[in-house]
Write a structure and sequence with these properties.
The protein is mainly α. It has helices spanning 10-15, 25-28, 45-51, 56-59, 74-81, 119-123, 128-131, 149-158, 185-195, 210-219, 227-240, 242-246, 251-260, 278-281; strands at 98-99, 102-103. The radius of gyration is 34 Å and the shape is elongated.
Length: 340
C-alpha cells in the first residue's frame, strides 16, 4: 500500500507504533503516585500548587535540568512536612511515600524503552501546564489527565518541532509495520476498519489515505468476490448492507452490469401479472419512471391513451387496482406522465 510521502505527515506514520506507548507520562510522571490495586498514597496537587502556591521545581528539583523528571526526595518533603505530619494520622504522613530514602510511588504511565524523550528539553521551552493540564486542581491520582500521541504530534506541528519518527522513537520508522499488520492482517483488516475504533493503532489515516484503499480494492477483489458471489450472492448483500458496497462501487456500477445481464431470478413470467416484486429490490429508484428498469422495452415507451371520458384531474387509483385492471406495478408516479 502507498504510504504518505510528505515530510509534514511523517509524524503520523509513527503513531501506529505508539498506540501502546502513551505519552501521558511525559511530564506527569513526576507527580503521579500509584499503589497496587487500591490507591495507597494520599496526595493533593491542588493543595500544593493552588493553595500553597508552590512552583513545580520546589518539589521536582531536577525537572528543568534533567532528562528524567525529578521526583521529590525525602529531604525536600521534610522541609514542610517535618513540622506538620505529627498532627496527621499515620496513613497520611510523608513516610508513606518513601521506602527509606527511595520514592515509593510509580510513574503514572511508564514510557517504553522505544520512546526517546527529554524532559529537560521540553520543560525549558514549554510551560508545565501545557502538558500537565488540570494538575493544579487535581485531588486524586485517578483524575490525572493523560496526553496521547495526537496531543504530542499536534504540538510538534504547531511549534514547527521535528516530526520525523526518529525524533521520538529508537527503532520505529516510516516503513515499520505495526505488530497487528502481520499474519492474517491482509485478510482481516476490513473488520478493524468497519469497527470505527478510537485506538491510535486502528487509525488507518495515520499512514494511509482514502486513495490507498481505493487503489488497492480496485485492483484486488475481496476474497468473497468469487464466481458464486457474482452469480448469486452479491444481490443479497447489496439489499442488506448497500453502504459496504458503496465503499468501492458507485450506483452506475450496478446499472452498467444489469443493463446487459438479467438477474437469474428474472425468468419468464417473473412476478406476473402485477410485477409487485419490483418494489422489493428497486426502491428507492435512482431514476424515476418506467425507463429506470425498462429503458429498452419498446412496449413500455408507448402507453395506452386514456379513454375519452377520462381527464387529467381524475383519481386513477380510485378505480384501477380496486376492481379495474392494473396491468403493471403502481410505483406512485403521476399516471398522466405516461398515459396522455
Amino acid at each position: 500500500m502507498a504510504v504518505l510521502g510528505q515530510a509534514s505527515r511523517s509524524r503520523r506514520r509513527c503513531a501506529r507504533a505508539a498506540a501502546s506507548l502513551s505519552l501521558a507520562a511525559v511530564a506527569l510522571a513526576g507527580c503521579v503516585l500509584f499503589g497496587s490495586g487500591e490507591k495507597r498514597y494520599a496526595f493533593s496537587h491542588e493543595r500544593h500548587v493552588t493553595l500553597e502556591k508552590l512552583d513545580c521545581a520546589n518539589c521536582h528539583a531536577d525537572a528543568l535540568a534533567s532528562e528524567e523528571p525529578g521526583m521529590p526526595t525525602r529531604d525536600t518533603c521534610d522541609v514542610c512536612h517535618q513540622g506538620i505530619d505529627s498532627a496527621k494520622p499515620p496513613e497520611r504522613r510523608i513516610e508513606t511515600l518513601f521506602h527509606g530514602e527511595d520514592f515509593a510511588a510509580a510513574h503514572a504511565t511508564a514510557l517504553s524503552g522505544e520512546v526517546v524523550f527529554s524532559h529537560q528539553k521540553h520543560a525549558s521551552v514549554l510551560a508545565c501546564s501545557l502538558c500537565h493540564q488540570g494538575i493544579e486542581s487535581n485531588e486524586r491520582v485517578a483524575d490525572l489527565r493523560h496526553l496521547n500521541m495526537a496531543a504530542c504530534t499536534s504540538c510538534h506541528e504547531e511549534k514547527h518541532a521535528p516530526e520525523a519518527c526518529a525524533t521520538c522513537h529508537k527503532e520505529i520508522r516510516e516503513t515499520w509495520a505495526p505488530p497487528n499488520h502481520r499474519s492474517n492482517w491482509h485478510r482481516m483488516h476490513g473488520e478493524t476498519v468497519r469497527a470505527n475504533s478510537d485506538l491510535t493503532a486502528d487509525a488507518c489515516s495515520i499512514c494511509h489515505t482514502q486513495a490507498t484503499c481505493s487503489a488497492c480494492h480496485q485492483s484486488e477483489k475481496p476474497e468473497n468476490h468469487n464466481h458464486f458471489w457474482l452469480e448469486r450472492g452479491h444481490g443479497i448483500t447489496a439489499m442488506m448492507d448497500r453502504e459496504t458496497c458503496a465503499a468501492c462501487h458507485e450506483p452506475m456500477s450496478c446499472q452498467r452490469c444489469h443493463q446487459d445481464v438479467r438477474p437469474r431470478s428474472h425468468v419468464g413470467n417473473w412476478g406476473a401479472p402485477h410485477d409487485n416484486h419490483c418494489l422489493v429490490c428497486h426502491q428507492p429508484l435512482g431514476q424515476e419512471g418506467c425507463v429506470a428498469c425498462h429503458a429498452s422495452a419498446k412496449s413500455h415507451l408507448t402507453a395506452a391513451p386514456k379513454p375519452p371520458d377520462h381527464y387529467a384531474g381524475m383519481d386513477c387509483r380510485a378505480c384501477h387496482g380496486h376492481g379495474q385492471p392494473l396491468p403493471h406495478v403502481d410505483n406512485g408516479d403521476d399516471c398522466n406522465s405516461c398515459h396522455l
